[in-house]
Amino acid sequence: MTWTESGTTGTVTADDGVRLWASGSGRGTPLVMCHGGPGLWDMFEDVAGLLGGLATTVRWDQRGCGRSERCAGPWTTERFVADLDAVRAHYAPDRTALLGHSWGAQLALSYALAHPERVSALVYVAGIGIGPDADWRGAYEENLLARIGEHPERRARWRELTDRPQRTDEEEREWAVLQWTAEFEDRERAPEHAERMADPWFGINTECSKALNAERRRAWGTPELYAACQALDLPVVIVDGERDIRPRSAVDSLERALPQVRRVVLPDAGHLPWVEDPDGFREAVATVL
């Protein structure tokens, strides 16, 4: 395949026939990126531009999400790993570097554990480690409420929408933007950044989100997972925004397990570190490309 700076956009067909939206651009080492969620869509357009001189970046929407074909699942890590393998095979027939953000960091790690021979390096961004939810969930909820609570009217509206049994699509977008304002260290620009995350808006696949989060609660935090990470013979860079509302200490278990790991903490960034420290983020990713 011939790559150009302007890139290519189309679909990749998974082995069960589901069509996945994908886009490749840039030049250099292939870097397939896995967006957060679960149940969201690719928000890496800025990252692709930031890294375009370092790598051929591949963005994609996970099954049933964003611009990918709406389907009935299945909503399992095994299925999503197979989808990622279809994207990888289409854009990088040999090996690729992987970058995953938040839930996407878990997916990228799961893929690397399943297919280490197909991965050249892993960039693990703003994940929650390999321990149980107890390592991070309580502190995350406390920090979320504190940040949203900085603006009483915003908090009241967020609470009203959170407690509503059903939301319209417009209300779902409003709720998401209100919640996403908590993800940024720069509190003045947080509403602007959160609005940008929701533009374009494709709707949250809540069924997908609930199923994959439930699977994580069952499967994460096991001795088997820790042992598998200890055996992962790949260069890994962990990139954290120090001001992420998910406690960064939750990632310590993963850092301790990995044999080839470097950790970069960006002090003035939150959950989307490339937004608030693009230079630091680019430099961190460049270390493994």
UniProtKB/TrEMBL annotation:
Keywords, ordered alphabetically: Hydrolase
Pfam families: Abhydrolase_1
UniProt record, GO biological process: proteolysis
A GO CC annotation given for this chain: membrane
Start and end residues of each AB hydrolase-1 domain: 30-277
Presence of the UniProt keyword Hydrolase in the record: yes
Keyword Nuclease assigned: no
GO MF entries: aminopeptidase activity
SUPFAM superfamilies in alphabetical order: alpha/beta-Hydrolases
Family assignment from sequence similarity: Belongs to the peptidase S33 family.
UniProt protein name: Alpha/beta hydrolase
